[in-house]
User: What shape does this take?
Amino acid sequence: MSTGKLDLAGECLQNAMDLSGLLVLYSSLGDAEGIKKLAYLAKEQGKNNVAFLCLFMLGNLEECLQLLVDSNRIPEAALMARSYSPSKVSDIVAIWKKEFDDWQVSHAVESATTEQRDGAVLVSGNEDDEEWGTNNEGTPPA
Assistant: This one.
């Protein structure tokens, strides 16, 4: 790159699958088509941070929001919608609320099957193996 052989640099970055390097190169050159291709390549590879930046640079806010939702980054999607696409806020907040409700149910089930006391965790079936009120060294907790 330092010698100005940007085509060769791009080819090397593609062969090495250096998506971050390609992002720097394409954004420096203002290559919108390259950035678009990179966005889809990054999504396929699971490099959501690169894909998001590409989509955002291209102004594809709908796709940015969808990528955040698909990546289970619901709070970030809600904040982005609030700033850039207010018409989508209610839809994304509904998804966020559902995710939170599902988490609460999962947490309640976990709490019902696990007892915690004095730093020791006893799960049904191993009560005889543990002694309440002691840490792993057998000394009383401080």
Q: What stands out?
A: Helices lie at 6-15, 19-29, 32-45, 48-58, 61-70, 74-84, 89-113.
